[in-house]
Design a protein that fits this description.
Layout (H helix, E strand, L loop, with lengths): L1 E5 L6 H12 L3 E3 H11 L2 H12 L5 H12 L8 E4 L5 H13 L6 E6 L2 H9 L1 E4 L6 E3 L18 E2 L6 H15 L1 H7 L4 E5 L4 H16 L1
Parallel strand pairs: 1-3, 1-4, 2-3, 4-8
Antiparallel strand pairs: 5-6, 5-7
Helix pairs in contact: 1-9, 2-3, 4-5
This protein binds BIS(adenosine)-5'-pentaphosphate and magnesium ion.
């Protein structure tokens, strides 16, 4: 399957993507994680992305679309993928349509994680991420690690993202409303959007998403 996950910062895209990708045996492709990996490796792409991310703005499309396309063309993504954080504006959505068309592929569903704004602020402010690859995500209150500051899964160091400061979170939410929300209507016009209420326990949300995907596939 080829799936896009959308939802505001802190909605739980990364958390859900880890479980959904495993259940569906497809790779989880997060442009945010790819940028953070480039930053920690000190690459040119990482240097270009960092200032935009720290300010809560989108990284320019010229950089983002090429990076996402390269990742989608890796062999492990030949039979499907779960996109998390891409596309994030109309130009990226149109670029993705072009990439898929060229490969004679199409999207199966766009899952829209719906969470009230006060909840996303709580989720982001307590989030701790594993430094090793960013795929292991904890929360100081909702899903704490057994040992403070240490990832239960791989022993990596847990840290708070630089863009999780309050003023940057406000900016990211504003960018979500102005730039990203319009892609939901774009995909509604293609009849691809499934809205998933994303309040409740992590595994309850995963079950809702899996049930919705099964209905779409039927
Ligand atoms: P990105 O990394 O994509 O960040 P984001 O969209 O702001 O989303 P987050 O990762 O903050 O939240 P999430 O929905 O993944 O939530 P999570 O699962 O961690 O992008 C960062 C930056 O990179 C952007 O601002 C931009 O600069 C740049 N960028 C990336 N893609 C780009 C693109 N396509 N174009 C241009 N620029 C781009 O969960 C949050 C917390 O909640 C965790 O602590 C978790 O444990 C907890 N939680 C999750 N689910 C639950 C639950 N059900 N109950 C309780 N707690 C929960
Ligand atoms: Mg994320």
């Amino acid at each position: 399957m080829r799936i896009v996950l959308v939802g505001p910062p802190g909605a739980g895209k990364g958390t859900q993507a880890a479980y959904l990708a495993e259940n569906l045996a497809i790779p989880h492709i997060s442009t945010g994680d790819l940028f953070r990996a480039n930053i920690s490796q000190g690459t040119e792409l990482g240097k270009q992305a960092k200032a935009y991310m720290d300010a809560g703005n989108l990284v320019p499309d010229e950089v983002t679309i090429g990076m996402a396309k390269d990742r989608m063309e890796q062999p492990d993504a030949a039979n499907g993928f779960l996109l998390d954080g891409f596309p994030r504006n109309l130009a990226q959505a149109e670029a993705l349509d072009g990439i898929l068309q060229d490969a004679d592929q199409k999207l199966d569903a766009v899952l829209d994680l719906e969470v009230p704004e006060e909840e996303v602020v709580k989720r982001i402010s307590g989030r701790r991420m594993c430094r090793k690859d960013g795929k292991h995500i904890f929360h100081v209150e909702y899903s704490p690690s057994k040992t403070d500051g240490v990832c239960d899964i791989c022993g990596g160091e847990l840290y708070q993202r630089e863009d999780d400061r309050e003023d940057t979170v406000r900016k990211r939410l504003e960018v979500y409303h102005t730039e990203t929300e319009p892609i939901i209507d774009y995909y509604k016009a293609q009849d691809l959007v499934v809205t998933i209420p994303a309040l409740g326990k992590v595994d309850e949300v995963t079950q809702r998403a899996m049930a919705a995907l099964e209905r779409e596939a039927a």
